[in-house]
Amino acid sequence: MEKSLTSLQNPRVKGFAALKDKKQREREQLYLVEGVRAVDTYLSCGDILQTLIYDDEIPLPDVALDLVFAARKKGIEVLPVGTNAIAKIADTEHPQGVIGVARMGDADWRAIVDEGEGDATVAAAPLLLLDGVKDPGNLGALLRSAHAVGCTRIVTLPGTVDVYSPKVVRAAMGSLPSLQIARMTDTFEELGARLNEEGYRVIGTDLDGTSLYEEDLTGKLALFIGSEADGLSFDASDLCERMITIPMPGKTESLNVAIAASVILYESLRQRLVRK
Question: Which residues form the RNA 2-O ribose methyltransferase substrate binding domain (predicted)?
């Protein structure tokens, strides 16, 4: 039986808690996964979980204990910690008693773009390019919708919040392991050249664009999504061949970016299913 870690000064407890900081996540290439449902999903996704931490000072519900047993059976490191230590590590006010420590994906943005090579069938989901999506909850919800429609290739552009931040991970509800996500680390010119070489049609979102219901959203498509407040940056807009918008006869000023992206992604899915 593992010895419980109760001291808040324990190096491992401090190390796990430090993963709430972006620089530490990038240094360790690890991030935190909170919540019974999310940890359960991660356990079923290969070897993405490095460690499972659980609170051994409270009676855990059976569903949480099952995760502990399942992690041990898979050979994942299992660490009991005290309630105060869990509280220090967790990003939530009322942690559920289990926290996963997951390995970051190692995809390169060029590989994600290139993976669409030769895949011009109507069944192919768009390549999703996220430009300046700043709110963690919105980004997580957007990633969850992308997962739902099978849009698994995602590149985040400058200004977009870190996909491995605790709030994004929680809002994504276990979707991250099923997605290929990478940050663009080069210039927009390089991105544009890559999209052109790979034969993508590039579409962006803009209030003055064509209705998405009048646009072909099938085939080899790269879709730019901008922030709710600012829309697409000039650099991103400059790469787009066409702009689309969501009709809003109700005259609301705007939609939450996660909702807007979901509407577009589901319209793309509808068109792909109809044309199969």
Answer: 32-108
